[in-house]
């Protein structure tokens, strides 16, 4: 009987807690980044700075969960790290934690500089190497204005009134004010405003900051929205109600309690069922989490068994403390730096700071995939010939090299591997313009006894096969489709799905199909391809054949697409007969006629960019883009083939070690 009473009491408490929590999560964490600014002074010592910064964020995180505000100071001397974070007054604590979580993942992008600040629509965070807690003005103060809609004089008058009222009210309300003012002459239009000072400021400094913010926002009118991003405060006005709802008063809470007491007996059974379900889910989640952790540990140990150890100071010296002058580029996992070891070997280092579990999983997946392959077309290469235009001969060599690499992944490796992100930005070139497949962060191994893998959608729009995009069913034919898109880009010098006419304009695949059907495929040729008089006809036929093969690879039905070995054979053996391709996906039969192409519906490839860039797949090589991960002071490296290139993988998964691990692969 006591157990029954205890269970009933527990159910009552659960119901009460759930209802109270429902009031805690008010609406929207507003975690959209508005502005990130970084200092111009480099950190003093990276081996000290990074752990201090991480510790500062952790301390602030504890305070944010309690009060929505936090400060922290970690370290001594020039390596001291000061941090401040605050959520705006209308955010609930749970929404605040979500906003802060976003801020702390973005601000580390300022590294290697020792200071920075980030304004989000729901919170603010700042870090630096001196105590700035009492500052309320600075040279970086500015306003960010919405530039989509201009408003009339009535709106402007209401906006000034709303902002001025917030300036007057906030200093007397612990630095926070919110409200709205109706626009004269309208029935349902208002101006909404929020003002918030950092809690480290006194009343006088808060008022001074908001007054400065008021004058900054005057410059945003007549636009419908404006944000003042100042050293000591934040202010925003808008014609849209962006404010989270305020919690109800005590009387309403009393009514809720009465209702709960009245209905609690009728929901006890439901709550017990929910509790049991939650318990079972939690147990499964814990087991799954442990399995994932064990898998990561096993992989790390297996890598460590293959490694040689290097001190972090060696890598720091090789890159001159990751100096900006040694920066080669930016990629999905971080920044690439060039370095030189003591024996003269050049290295490429890429770092991602303060990783999360999702990125860590991708990192380990990439390490595992790369470690299991051995092929001349699966290398990361540094290119020093930036600016050399690619003629058709070189483009065709790139096509063949890419195809050979995919044949190996799909058919000749120990385990079938689906790359899942074949695109121009992941095909890198060495000094001799040889193609190297890069970026295995999304790659997946494939068991022979399965027809497909069902997985979460990941990749690049415009390159993803329709069956994978729609249903998450992944086979090697998804790579074939991406390769087909790449073929058409190599021929046309245009990037797929880059329209400047309309968001509904045809994709490159559709345009190529229409020209192929109309017998006008030559109009697709990139003007930069120079056809020499002596072999004009032969080269033209080869290019037309590549277009044909590209359309075979991008057919809507996966079973109709050729496998990569067949594709390679069609590319290299001209006597191989080509069947007629069927429709590509997303083709509107009512628009089969070709439109006037005098206004090119695609962005032409920019000659200043490279085959390895994501925004413009131009045919100019560039320095490598390497996928790695960094978390504090542990570094993983790969020795790559005879070129002795080194891909440095930095990981923060183990915080205690001060050493770097060099992995020798069989590439």
Automatic annotation (TrEMBL):
Its main location: membrane. It catalyses: L-threonyl-[protein] + ATP = O-phospho-L-threonyl-[protein] + ADP + H(+); L-seryl-[protein] + ATP = O-phospho-L-seryl-[protein] + ADP + H(+). GO terms for molecular function: ATP binding; protein serine/threonine kinase activity. The chain crosses the membrane at residues 256-281. GO terms for cellular component: membrane. Residues 31-132, 137-242 form the Gnk2-homologous domain. PANTHER family: CYSTEINE-RICH RECEPTOR-LIKE PROTEIN KINASE 3 (PTHR47973). This is Cysteine-rich receptor-like protein kinase 2. It comes from Phaseolus angularis (Azuki bean). The lineage of its organism: Eukaryota, Viridiplantae, Streptophyta, Embryophyta, Tracheophyta.
